[in-house]
Amino acid sequence: MATTKKVALLDVDGTLIDSNEAHALAWVDAFAQHGHEVSFAKVRELIGKGGDKLIPETIHIEKDSPEGRAIAKQRSAIFAKTYLPQLRAFPEARELLRALAAAGLELVIATSAQADELTALLKQAGLDDLIQAAATSSDAKESKPDPDIVIAALRAARCRPAEAVMLGDTPYDVEASIKAGVQVVGLRCGGWKDEDLAGATAIYDDVRDLRRHLAGSPFLV
Predict the structure, then answer these.
(1) How far apart are CA 25 and CA 31, in angstroms?
(2) Fewest CB atoms within 10 A around its CB: which of 169, 178, 200, 206?
């Protein structure tokens, strides 16, 4: 059956790349360097949101304050130097993207990551050559779970919400997609339970599982 969908909107961290814990550790390190003791567990549950939400929800200051900007900058530096070189794509992530493209779907990133960090992530994971367009926190006023990034990705793809399916791993991906009117597929590999991903049309273990069941997934039916 030919797909009626035109675009696969793709989250990156925890979805295509096994990086959620690395991001949490980088935030914990950055907070500590600025005198804030924040537990890994507290930060980990917020990964998937952008710094505009994570910073005020952990240490109760705004990201755009002088200290907030300094912490965000420090986190980026720590992540790039300490954690990024260790990261890898989830098994069969590249094969999944190639299968989606072969089915005629445009591949568009919709991530709360910053634009420069996204470029480095995709290159590190060996996926950068497969992506047609991207929307990042740089393209949106508010990060997930607000719908701004998903809407920006739809705009970049020049498609209607009904023509796209979002792939993500967090409740924030699900909420942002639903608010944007986009069907969403959830993955468990980001560390969330099925009840956390309530609202997703379908849930798979990881990209390998989705690839094996792609023919019957929301992307192709």
Answers:
(1) 10
(2) 178
